[in-house]
Amino acid sequence: MTDWNQRLAELAERHNVPGATLGILSQGEITDFAYGVLSLRTGVETTTDSLFQIGSITKVWTATIVMQLVDEGKLQLDAPLVEVLPELRLSDPGVTAKVTMRHLLTHTSGIDGDVFTDTGRGDDCLEKYTAVLADAAQNHPLDATWSYCNSGFSLAGRVIEKLTGGTWDAAVRDRLVTPLGLTHTVTLPEEALLHRAAVGHVTHDGDQTVAPVWGIPRSAGPAGSIVSTVADLLKFAQMHLDGGGEVLSSASAAAMAEHQADLPDKYLLGDSWGLGWERAGWDGHRLIGHDGNTIGQAAFLRILPETGLAVALLTNGGNGAKLYEELYREIFAELAQVPVPHPLGPPDVPVEVDPAPYAGVYERASIRQEITVTDTGPVLRVSVTGAMAELLQEEPVDYPMVAVAPDLFVAQDPETGNWIPATFYELSTGEKYVHFGARATPRCAS
């Protein structure tokens, strides 16, 4: 039997991860491990009861609360949201009238997904955020494609507030944290301060420093602000493995894991999406899970329902994606005999594809992507714009691109060396898009 504590330490050091916790749920038992420090500035040691930001894994928690409300007859997945939020106004009146909770949970609403407007720390932050969406772009027609949408989950959080009469944070506490007996799970920074909490780290020119901002705005809470331990996260996973346990009906738990939407890019995340859950196929085995990324922290959760195996990894900097890839490959091979697919990279034999037709500007809220053809090949320049630019203060990043197949390239992150797929495609109505970083971004200039 592998010493997972040792392997966590060895691989975290290899990938420059300052601190990490690993949790394994197998045969109904949770074991957890810790490595490194919570902050390079303070040197405080990571322990298994240390809290990390789970980022977008939060979305599955928000979806679970939504499904509780469905169980209670307070919400219908396919009813227009305006029945619950008559004040809702989106930039496209047709979408305002037709968008449903199913669209939000499956990332098919077309609402620009990265609107991170900070609407304050008050309990009315999601109410104010919902009003801000009146100015958010409609990136694609309703239900026309799949594009990762943080904004939709903030909107889902507001629906939860309207139906429960309290804040989203209170709903998480009252409907999940307390019933599941989770003692180290919070949603607000002032609550995290009462625990041993990690800070994120960012890398510039090879040097890691503490992230300039600890967390994301409260208005993005339902999309990514839960702070937890691997043990608490795996207790949440166990509830889903148990068919919803005492907090969710078995029908709703099953519906969350079922196929709802296909992904244009089947290489970066999974191949399809459920109601909140990412769905992935590994060598014929069906998994559900989710990843999370905040400012300098990255989280990973994978569940193999057929064996009851679930693995959680929380990190606070460095190349968390590479740590996840190597560590999970070993864990799933030993404990489930299931191979973890390797990320898509450049082909062994170069593929000749003319990149000129893909050159141009693709843009959505917070992100501008410009593809140019240079003497050494195509380059994708990614610039952060808007509120996120003010928050992160990052310079544009150039990603060299290599063709894999017609309409499919991989772009290399210059900081980590990781390869990210870029899929070019058209909607049925002819609009051109690039799918990069799990987002569909429309072409706006050539």
Automatic annotation (TrEMBL):
It comes from the Bacteria. InterPro entries: AmpC-like, Beta-lactam-related, Beta-lactam/transpept-like. Signal peptide: none annotated. Gene3D superfamilies: DD-peptidase/beta-lactamase superfamily (3.40.710.10). Residues 5-332 form the Beta-lactamase-related domain. This is Beta-lactamase family protein.
